[in-house]
């Protein structure tokens, strides 16, 4: 029970920073759509609840997300994270979960998804990077850093979650990290999902 309370306290300390990140990146997503005249139905966002977050790290510590064939081993690392409540371990846990903040942009047509995806990965907007390099990204002059190796084009045939979408992880780029209001959230990452109205309705 003490472990639960410890992580709940850490979560609540981070919550105001996630809220700033959520609001600023949601506004940026809207600006990208509007500036490029890409019609969208809605933009929504959420911060992962504490219970969902805690359940995820406990599952990882117990090996539920391990995949030996792909060389994915969370259990040893997360067991240590839960036992040793150091500041470094807290930072590492929050830095490993891609979707603590999630944004969803819904479009009428799939062609609009392709168009906006192109802009998210274009120079000046999204600087491409690898997920493993998120703590020390290459200097850039972009609004966002987009992790190209997290980009997924999910279809109803290829996903077990029952929905189709385009999704990728991201964090703030150099243009925003240096602004006063964003200095405390420069290491936060989130996930963007792009869907059509039909895909969103099925989900």
Question: What does the model show?
Answer:
- By secondary structure, this protein is α/β, with parallel strands linked by helices.
- 42% of the residues lie in helices and 20% in strands.
- It has helices at 2-35, 50-61, 75-83, 87-96, 110-120, 174-177, 197-202, and strands at residues 42-47, 101-107, 126-129, 144-147, 152-154, 165-172, 189-196.
- Strands 1, 2, 3, 4, 5, 6 and 7 form a seven-stranded mixed beta sheet that branches.
- Helix 2 (50-61) packs across helix 3 (75-83) and helix 3 crosses helix 4 (87-96).
- The longest helix has 34 residues, at 2-35.
Low-confidence stretches: 156-162
The ordered H/E elements are HEHHHEHEEEEHEH
Mean pLDDT: 87
Share of helix among residues?
40-55%
What distance lies between the first and last C-alpha atoms, to the nearest angstrom? 34 Å
Features:
single chain; 203 residues; alpha/beta; 7-stranded mixed sheet
